Amino acid sequence: MHRTLGIDLGTTNSVAAWLHDGVPAVLPNRHGDQSTPSALGIDSRGALLVGREAVSWRPDGPSSVITEVKRLIGRRWDDELVQQALKARPSDAPPVRASTDGSVEIRLGEHYLSPVQVSAILLRRLKEDAENAAGVPFRRAVITVPAYFAEPQFHAVREAGRLAGFHVARIVPEPTAAAHAFGVRPGEDGTKEYATVLVFDLGGGTFDVSLLTIGPGYFTVDRLGGDNLLGGSDFDALLDDHLREQFDGRDHSGEGDASRIRAAAERAKVELSSRDVSEVTLAPLGRQGGSWSGAVRRTVFEKLLIEHLRRMRETVESVLKKGEALPEDVHRVLLVGGSTRIPAVRHDLVDLFGESTVSHTVDPMMAVAHGAAVEAGLLSTLDCPAETCTTEGIPVTADACPGCATPLLGTATVDCPGCHVPAPELTAACPVCATDLSGLRAAGLVSTTTECPDCGRDDNPASATVCRDCDAPLDAGGLKCTGCGMVNAAGLSACSLCGGDFGTTPAAQVTAQHIGLELDDGTVEVLFPGGMPYPTEWHRLDDLKVPGAGDGSVRFHVWEGPHPRSAQRNEFCGGFVHKRAHGLREDVPLDLLARLDADRTIVLKYRIGSGDWHQAQLRRSMVSTAVGRKAAELHARYIDFLHNWKQEVTPAEHGALTEVMRDLETLSKGEAVGRSLDGLLDSARDTLELCTRARSSTALATLAAQSGRKLLPPPLLEELREAAEAVMDARRAMDADAMRVATERAEDLWTGLDPTIRTSILTIRLAEQDAYPTTLRKEVLAARDALRDAVERSDQAAQDTQLVRLGRLAEQGRGQLAEVSTPFTAGSVLPSKR
């Protein structure tokens, strides 16, 4: 059989657990600890530090230790929540920047990694430690996430698990996992046949409230509420600020001071859960290496928490109101997350629900991991992870999808020695840092054996389901019945021997917020309203159309959030661009089908007009709206330039500009390009500006050389001719450096001419190109002829008169230039209502 690891991937701490003999058990890490800090670091020699090692290194190298990455996973740089989270970080935390696809990157050592890659490194370590502790391989995982995570975060966590070498069998909301762990049974402790349960989950970085209904063989999530930026780390920040206020002007700007103060705040918070006063000593402190000692009282801490406590209570009351329940209707309140150990938090819940209702029976730090292990035991089927495969309900005993042969077991992985991101074994080069991985092989697992409880044979493989001698059932990966002691097969929610209830069953989940499609007016057509149970059947929309505009490409952008009137205020889930060979001349109907699977993954199918049905695979790496808008503006300017000067642009210029245009067009449609965005837009602007200046300087220098005969000295005319030719030579080769040098030389020569001569030359050329209205054009051409006659006669006074006349006509001509048409800018469109 294939064992599945249950993982609580936490903001501050992570825990791994499995079902052993039908009972959830935490697997200790290599240090013997039940939890592993969710921290990664690089020491002074470049070695990877994980968990406790990284936390211990933070005082010495705070800028090389990553913590709280869960707050950033699956989010975009321009997300308001991301910016709030970054502001709350210590000032000496590792650098963070916008990535090429508009998301977030964090520096680890010499490399910038995505939150997915950072989480994959942590998950890989949890996997290694769990396998060494259990003695069995874990190639599948159930990973938990906050209930208020949006679909992009679900997907990001699943991707991190895949990178770490797991087939992620299920992504489970943390409150649901916690309810599994508590095993709430109707009829126990005075609860009714169907119990109403509220899960209060306050972890290190997130806060969730879930209202559940649990009965015999029945488990449903009714309502969700929460805050993805509220948790223990925010309480640390409050104490951090409080400590700084106590320094009485003492210098605390020394290297590492910010991390030492934050660490002291974290320790004080933990100590104040069990004592009234926490003594704090900080040394060294400041650039001169001083010290500070003081005390923090619980009463002071609780005053600091007043606003956060109010927010939490409002969230609880909101969830109850949406669920049409009163506090007295709740039979049990389950406490989950280390921050629920804070006395003020518990007191507030007891005040609202009563002492007997608030449950303390399970360690809140271990509850979620225990529940993830229970969920693994409840799984009876798997879905194929291939995006194009629709096979569902695959038995958990299967190694691969029967429909498309996609493996249902995680791949063996190796750790990249350069950036430490896991990669599949036999990968030639690291996809992140290009380090050669061809010689690396996955480490072998130390195998252990299982003793048969019936005959005593002690060399059965740990993964065996029956004894080799007596065929007695061994650990079959399912739950143990508390009534008869039977260890059941995976996928059962009641005992196969006595029919006893396990106290939990696979839960019917609900969406946290609205999920919908962006329309061309900026609103959202809601596909799945908040609170909708999933997985869903196909939901059909027939009242959409595709506007007849642009090049025929249609953008499907999906958002999740509470703002149906403004898509941009919500969280971007993913996008897809349907490209057509020909544009649409008129509006056509759009038929759309949508569904949510068991992991809250969004699947779209659509048909434009009477065409074929297509399936949309949402791309997560879509560029931000701001970048897309800037790219669209630049793309339009490129089109205008090539249209207006198509006869003058050299083949080399045309090729270079067209290549940049392709990237700009891709970005303008919201899709990521195949190369870094770092400086791409600036480079595109510089290229267009250089080509524009080079064309202009060529034209002006040539014009001056031709029209300035007898008006300008012969040596200057020759310089102008040579400068124009030098620019053209560089343009023919599209040599940017040479173009820049030659262009600046031609521009200097042009601007150095007598202003009256420059104005006259330009005014005459505009008239010759029919750029002025007819009357003005005739006057300019008459002045031109008079000037030429004066030049032929060498009559300087007459020349001056005509130059002044041309200057006056140039002033009249300002604002009277004939309109120049510009081509229609092609672009993709969003769907709209019929």
What is the averaged pLDDT score? Answer: 86
Overall morphology: elongated
Please describe the biggest sheet, giving its number of strands, its sense, and whether it closes into a barrel.
6 strands, mixed
Portion of residues within helices? 25-40%
Protein model, in words:
With 834 residues, the chain is an alpha+beta fold. Among the domains are: 103 residues, Substrate Binding Domain Of DNAk, Chain A, domain 1 (Sandwich), CATH 2.60.34; 129 residues, no CATH class; 69 residues, no CATH class. The chain contains 19 helices and 38 strands. The strands form twelve sheets. Strands 1, 2, 3, 4, 11 and 12 form a six-stranded mixed sheet that branches. A five-stranded mixed sheet has the order 15-14-13-18-19, with helices on both faces. A five-stranded antiparallel sheet has the order 37-36-35-32-38, with no helix packed on it. Helix 6 crosses helix 7, helix 14 crosses helix 17 and helix 18 runs antiparallel to helix 19. The chain is elongated, with a radius of gyration of 34 Å. The relative contact order is 0.09. About 1% of the residues have low confidence.
